[in-house]
Write a structure and sequence with these properties.
β2 and β3 form a beta hairpin. The protein has 486 residues and is mostly helical. It is elongated. It contains 20 helices and 3 strands. The termini are far apart.
Length: 486
């Protein structure tokens, strides 16, 4: 087979009333071209003259290409790859793909049509080795060409999936990381999100948590709040055309669920309970629209558990109170009582508390999302101790360490340790007088704060005196009027 650009005899141009030139395909008879292609394909498939047919089609392709005929070149290029596919000549197909892409002054539209046509043959390959070879060939052809960047991204995704099925997670992750789909203007939004989520998932599978975090930040969570019911705006003149997402890409709500499930996997690595809770809260906002209890009850249970496992801070307190206001929590009375324990300013007795909720914690293993690990039990006890210390600080300004240990049901050493940790984390203001064995929860005020508190107290006193005088004057006037009437 010849790969040189010989000059064959040109096709006869179609008759035109205005004698239009054949350049740019204006006068080309495409019906004759299609008939000639059909004849060559028939001869190749029925008479076994595949090489001769390919040679003739390459000569036709050269004629169309040099005439800058986009339609004709595209038809011939597609016919060549179709012929190789129908003859099941997979090696020849790979050779022709490379050859056609490297020909001088090859048209972008022809390369795009060829790559798109060949992508449909990937699933029809007879074995895995042939499939990988075809994908790699198409990947090589489309590399560095911006007009087939979307096709290249889809090819790499297919190749990464094959690598993953072979157990080569690291290679699959490295392949996916080569593509920055966030820069593809013509790719559909849902396809971009799905691709990035696949990158994040592979990084989590290979335990590359740092890169997973970097990739996850490419997705703005606010994109999931977009109203999918709104009609798509018609593109204005000059705007870039956005391709439709393939049918295998999930809808936006499903992508939202996948995104937050991956975030739960990432935050579970760091035991960041508050962020895990917020992720479950986002999933709950999605599934709570359904009336099926089996969808939202497991998620609401997880929200309650991770709320009480989170260290005390303003965000945790806000989520705790907002969850308690959820009407659906009434269907889970035990979990409502669980949250109440950490809202009410009362000391939690750990032994009775653990006996009440031990079974519920063990039941999480049979719920969607999996069981809570052994560290969760230790952290739950730690949160109960922190809650008890906060309760004591509300009712006592000074307390002996011995009495504090009795209230917390801990030893003196453990009490001092937990109190010190809370002071270091700035969850509490306290001082321990070791020689005297006293803990003080009073905050030291500077002179300005003392003067401000005095000024506020004086202002309140004067306001009260003024109101009292007004009421006395009012009663006096009413009494005088009643005496005059009599």
């Amino acid at each position: 087979m010849s790969t040189m650009d010989e000059d064959p005899a040109p096709l006869a141009p179609a008759k035109s009333s205005n004698n239009a030139p054949s350049g740019k395909g204006k006068g080309m008879d495409y019906e004759s071209l299609e008939k000639e292609i059909a004849v060559l394909k028939t001869a190749a498939l029925q008479e076994g003259k595949l090489d001769m047919a390919i040679e003739a089609l390459l000569n036709l392709e050269k004629q169309m290409r040099l005439a800058a005929d986009v339609v004709g070149t595209r038809k011939v290029v597609v016919a060549i790859v179709e012929l190789c596919y129908e003859a099941r000549a997979w090696k020849m197909l790979n050779d022709q793909i490379v050859l056609l892409s490297k020909r001088r002054s090859q048209l972008k539209q022809a390369v795009t049509a060829m790559v798109q046509q060949c992508m449909g043959y990937i699933d029809q390959t007879p074995d895995l080795e042939t499939r990988i070879d075809l994908i790699k060939t198409l990947n090589t052809v489309s590399a560095g060409k911006i007009y087939v960047e979307i096709e290249r991204a889809r090819l790499i995704k297919k190749l990464a999936k094959i690598k993953e099925e072979q157990g080569l997670i690291t290679e699959a992750a490295e392949l996916m990381q080569e593509v920055a789909v966030e820069t593809f203007g013509a790719m559909a939004k849902t396809e971009k999100i799905a691709f990035i989520l696949e990158q994040v998932r592979l990084c989590l599978d290979r335990k590359d948590y740092m890169r997973a975090q970097i990739l996850s930040r490419k997705i703005n969570p606010r994109v999931f709040a977009a109203e999918t019911s709104k009609e798509k705006k018609k593109p204005k003149e000059g705007d870039a055309m956005v391709e439709e997402a393939p049918p295998d890409i999930p809808p936006l709500l499903e992508l939202k669920r996948i995104y937050y499930e991956l975030m739960i996997r990432y935050y579970s690595h760091n035991n960041d309970y508050l962020e895990i809770c917020r992720s479950y809260q986002a999933i709950y906002d999605t599934v709570s629209a359904t009336e099926e209890p089996s969808h939202w009850i497991p998620v609401l249970r997880k929200i309650c558990w991770y709320l009480v496992l989170s260290p005390h801070d303003p965000m945790q307190a806000t989520l705790l109170n907002s969850t308690l206001e959820d009407k659906r929590l009434t269907e889970l009375p035990k979990f409502r009582a669980l949250l109440k324990h950490f809202v009410t300013m009362e000391v939690i007795q750990w032994d009775s508390f653990w006996e009440a909720y031990k079974c519920e914690l063990e039941q999480e293993s049979s719920m969607p999302g999996g069981a809570l690990d052994d560290k969760a039990r230790e952290d739950l006890r730690l949160r109960a101790i922190e809650h008890n210390i906060l309760v004591v600080s509300k009712y006592y300004s000074r307390i002996t360490m011995k009495r504090l240990s009795e209230l917390l049901n801990l030893s003196l050493r453990e009490t001092e340790k937990h109190l010190s940790e809370m002071v270091v984390s700035k969850a509490l203001v306290a001082k321990i007088d070791r020689p005297a064995g006293v803990a003080s929860f009073q905050t030291v005020k500077d002179s300005n704060e003392i003067l401000n508190s005095w000024a506020v107290n004086i202002e309140r006193l004067l306001d009260l005196v003024e109101k009292s005088c007004h009421q006395i004057h009012k009663e006096t006037m009413v009494h005088r009027v009643s005496l005059k009437v009599q």
